[in-house]
Amino acid sequence: MPNRFTERPYFFNWRKSMSDWANAFKGKFNWRSKSEVPTETEVKETKTVERKTPVDLFEKCFNFTRADEVKAAGLYPYFRPIEENEGPVVQIEGRKIIMAGSNNYLGLTAHPEVKEAAIKAIEKYGTGCSGSRYLTGTLDLHNEFEYKLAKFMGKEACLLFSTGYQTAQGIIPTLVQRGEYVITDKDNHASIVAGVIMARGMSAEFVRYKHNDMDDLERVIKRTPFEAGKLIVTDGVFSTTGDIVDLPRLVSIAKKYNARILVDDAHAVGVIGKGGRGTASHFNLVDEVDMTFGTFSKTFASLGGFVVGSERVINYLKHHSSALIFSASPTPASVAAALKALEILEREPERIDKLIRNSNKMRKGFKEAGFKIIDGQTAIIPVIIGDDLLAFKFWKELFDNGVFVNTFISPGVPPGMQMMRTSYMATHEDEHLDQILDAFIKVGKKLGLIN
Ligand SMILES: Cc1ncc(COP(=O)(O)O)c(C=O)c1O
């Protein structure tokens, strides 16, 4: 006979389980009868006996020494200050380094028109909005960008947030409420995880499925009540591995089981789809995907987030999303820069072709050199190193050879999948890419990863 665990292995609604338990035992036990109520002395004695050594909240911080150890070994790859940034080449510690870890996919952060748009916006509107969109923080610039972005993405309406991370938190707990279900890929971005946790905190139900595994999605969704509201949330392009969601199957499962769809296109807009319109467009499923959200921090060369969808849903979010209503709106410079980046993206679609050409050249180069990579079609190419210490050493050697990449170690990735996560820009020239490959091959041979 199925029990509560075999029936619903992916359900982790602790509030519900606790109240189930409480109801099951209600009235069955009286822990103490009235005559057993302790005297004052007994209470004092018990309290004395039960007093425990207090734990300092900060103990975990004092005990966290892993980063210090890696720093002491000279291998620490994080928080490296960039002194100048031209896009494919940056300056760190006074040296010119080729950047192969940025999400500046179209290379627009250093584009003169984008910079100029930001400067002009500061001159016109000042440096900040000093209020939320809901109250005093809406500029005509926000409305203009929302209108243009909705049109670009093929949806009725758009809403801007201050970051992509905040956008996920602004959508998921606002839409998925008590008795409704959020169904999420296990490898979704941390911003989605945070949004799901918030929804759970507000008594929504929560189900996870194996990474991009549509059989598993169907297995878990089948167990949810058909009549309950459901939202399937997935990255369009997964941020660590660069693989693309199996959207056609996801859409057919959503239809079959009465679910809405939210796609995170942070790494897809400007990279895949017609003219860079993202995952839904890549699969010709724009009408079937209910909502897409994304960020300005990658293709759009700025800082901020957005969601596109139907006018009614966007209107609801506008009036209920706490991450929107209680946080200041994106700054004039951020919006103006992203708006200009969108204009350039539409005007110069050849940038996307160059980005994909660059990424394919690198994929081919890594494979020919004998590296183990996660293959794909996007601008993210993970090169598997397979061990934490080796990953730190690999990063340092690459850095010494003039190349900067991202180091992902466990538990951020599963053991054995420690990687140099590389990513590319439309503004990388062949000479940059060749230098990156040469450095990888030199270091790979030195550290015994390739022959
Ligand atoms: C897949 C994904 N979603 C959301 C975000 C959050 O975007 P932002 O940088 O605007 O907070 C990121 C950023 O790293 C991301 O990779």
Walk me through this protein's architecture:
The chain has 451 residues and is of the alpha/beta class. It folds into two domains: 67-99 and 349-446, Alpha-Beta Complex (Aspartate Aminotransferase, domain 1); 111-347, Type I PLP-dependent aspartate aminotransferase-like (Major domain) (Aspartate Aminotransferase, domain 2, 3-Layer(aba) Sandwich). Helix content is 43%, strand content 14%. It contains 18 helices and 14 strands. The chain has helices at residues 4-7, 14-25, 40-50, 59-63, 66-72, 112-125, 140-153, 164-175, 190-201, 214-222, 247-256, 279-282, 311-320, 322-325, 332-347, 350-369, 388-400, 430-446, and strands spanning 84-85, 89-92, 95-99, 157-161, 181-185, 205-209, 230-235, 259-264, 291-295, 305-309, 380-384, 403-404, 406-408, 419-423. α12 (279-282) links the parallel β8 (259-264) and β9. α6 (112-125) packs antiparallel against α15, α8 (164-175) packs parallel to α9 (190-201) and α16 runs parallel beside α18 (430-446). Residues 1-36 have low confidence and may be disordered. Pyridoxal-5'-phosphate binds at residues 163-165, 189, 191, 235, 239, 264, 266-267, 295, 297, 305.
